[in-house]
Amino acid sequence: MKKHILDTAVNKRQFMQGLAVLMGAGVSAQLMSGQALASALSYQAESDSTNQALTLFTEKQMQCLHDICAQVLPQTDTPSAAQLGVHGFIDHQLSVCFSKEQQQQAIAIVEKIKQMAMSHWQKSYVELTAKQQILLLQQIEAQQAGFDEQDGAAFSLLKSLIVYGYFTTEIGATQVLAYQAVPGGFKGSIPYASVGKSYGSLAYY
Amino acid sequence: MNKQADLYIEESNEVYDALVVGSGVSGGWAAKELCERGLKTLMLERGRVVEHQKDYHTEGKGVWQYPNRMKVDNLLLEEQYKIQQQCYAFHDGTKHFFGNDKDLPYSTEEGTKFSWIRANQLGGKSLLWHRQSYRFSNYDFEANKLDGHGNDWPIRYKDIAPWYSHVEKHAGISGNYDGLDQLPDSEFLPPFDFTKPELSIQKKFAELFPDRPMVMGRTAHLSKATELHLSQGRVTCQARNECQKGCSFGAYFSTQSSTLPAAAKTGNLHIAANSVVHSLIYDESSKRVTGVRVIDNETLKPREYYAKMVFLCASTLGSTQILLNSTSKSFPNGLANSSGVLGHYLMDHNYNAGAFGFVKGFEDEFYSGRRPTGIYIPNFQFEPKRYKKGYQRGYALAGGSGRANWQQMSRGKGIGADFKHQLTQAGTWFFNLQAQGEMLPRYENQVSLHPTKKDKWGIPQLHINCQWSDNEKAMMADAEATAKDMLIKAGLENVSSYNSIEGGPPGLAIHEVGTARMGHNAKDSVLNQFNQSHDIANLFVTDGSSFCSSAVVNPSLTFMALTARAVDYAVKEMKAGRI
């Protein structure tokens, strides 16, 4: 069997490391290698997933995660990650497809965000203004104001889940991105402007 | 397919003209060629029936329709797919076509690893393969003789060339007529397109490395269906590149889309599914095989099937396991094993090194569709005088280009609308090369039956002892450096490279070959030049186990050609009364 481009785990990992060089971000292949044992509850995307049974996060953490999702990928001319229920997806996906360590990493960063909101502004994260919520997340990425490298890595994991969860919803894949269910053949050269966006339809996710 | 009503059988006392064990690439071809020559043929498949179109239940589903968005539940991975999950094509949309590791145990020699990927259902790995299709060259058939590794192939390119043509026209192989001695052309449908960055890199490579031409990957997809294919109910490839879920367009080669309907159309085919072959039945007096002993996949009850001739097409390790388990007075160490080489000389391909980088520019360029193939640089060390210092034989480089997407950029920095917008746009172009190295045939790389452990069907487990040798290690080190050098010299940016041979055991190229090799001589090989057992005239083994060397190219097209050629010979022998 032939593997090319990103077909193998090794290739994909290497490629992501290459992107880390390009983008200066701490990219890793954690998304590819979830290992832990966990219960399998089917997740159905709903417009508001805060109401569904939680498997990993507490309700308070979930409210916080809802707002993190809403800030990382906010509402523009397309819905926000929170509007597409990505926080609920994360709770499900982490518990079913990720390791215990990764689950703890994700919980820990949400907890830390809650704590830092309290220590900076004496408010819970969900009570902060949008500007404050954004600033706090930027501080994690910059590893400043009480956030360290470990927090940065944990947030990076969370963020990869937000992005994956968002662009693999029906709206994310088919409306926010260009979706070719049946492309009708391969054309090696077309003007980028004729599509104007990235594809949500991939051979391998 | 007509004759559908009596296609599937369970018990039968009939003596068929031929039994075909296995329904994958080789088994499908054996059945088609036998049936078309008028032989009443029974195909045995150890797994369940998978019907074309009807049983591709994940085909066409959006990623959002999977509960875990294409990822597989950890619990399931841990319990059932510890090995299978290592395959690049394993995911929630394909896992039902992979074997269940829990039911299919095997052992490996201490200190060694081998990843054995299984596909036990009607169609076998013909449903899962990536469909890359290349002819062996005459250099490949001569290599063992010229450099002394392994035994001499008993055939040369001219012997198999007409059979390549025969299978290619039916299967449908896309590619460009490149006119390369080291990679002979097939009977081609049109090649898939290059992207603009690929054309630019191709041009640079041609200037810098004239001995390493970059061609379009050749693949068993109908880039343009012919009348013949349309008459088979197959249409042109839609470039979904989701082939392993099943393709109802029949736009690729699989048993279900191509060989099975042709065989069934003759009215000569019967299929017994859920038939796990335990061993072959050998008659000492006539020195012939007379049938097979089967354990039912589900009920575990034994039964037998009988035929005048047997084609073993159960996959490289599957066929060898059956032969090893078929012992008798004349063959205490495995049927057709008077040479003692059965189980030895296991090979795979070595995919453990490569390089990638980013391509500047081309921001106005994009592609449409998902090309089911990539670019290919054929082995450029294809004869002894071209070998590099430090190791023998060579490797091909496969790869391709694309634009970075939201998933790959998901861990980039940024919060908010700008970050979101960036993710919705196609990113920088990238390009990669992955080595596909030849593995030398070595006696030490061996499979045997475990002395005590058995599977649930009561069949002794296979014990695998297979490792990369210093030759493969030196080759990957060179391949990494070479691929990196090529990308840097071609002007790519942020070029990185890797060599994962220490953590990448054999098996995962899923090109396992050898263990029942062909040869001129009954003393050092299992099969003759027509894949016929030296010891038993009515026994043929036409899958990858028959290979004398792995060569560099993907093996499936050669399984097809060897099988068709062997059937042609077998039927002539039968009609002449010698079988």
UniProtKB/TrEMBL annotation, chain A:
Domain of life (superkingdom): Bacteria
Any single Pfam family the record assigns to this protein: Gluconate_2-dh3
Protein name: Gluconate 2-dehydrogenase subunit 3 family protein
Native organism: Thalassotalea marina
TrEMBL record, chain B:
UniProt key word Cytoplasm: no
A GO term, aspect molecular function: oxidoreductase activity, acting on CH-OH group of donors
Alphabetic keyword roster: FAD, Flavoprotein, Oxidoreductase
Domain Glucose-methanol-choline oxidoreductase C-terminal: 441-562
Record-linked InterPro entries: FAD/NAD-bd_sf (IPR036188), GMC_OxRdtase_N (IPR000172), GMC_OxRtase_C (IPR007867), P2Ox-like (IPR051473)
Cofactor: FAD
Residue ranges constituting the Glucose-methanol-choline oxidoreductase N-terminal domain according to the UniProt record: 52-349
Annotated family: Belongs to the GMC oxidoreductase family.
UniProt cross-references to PANTHER family, sorted A to Z: PYRANOSE 2-OXIDASE (PTHR42784:SF1)
Protein name, UniProt field: GMC family oxidoreductase
Organism per entry: Thalassotalea marina
Lineage, top ranks: Bacteria, Pseudomonadati, Pseudomonadota, Gammaproteobacteria, Alteromonadales
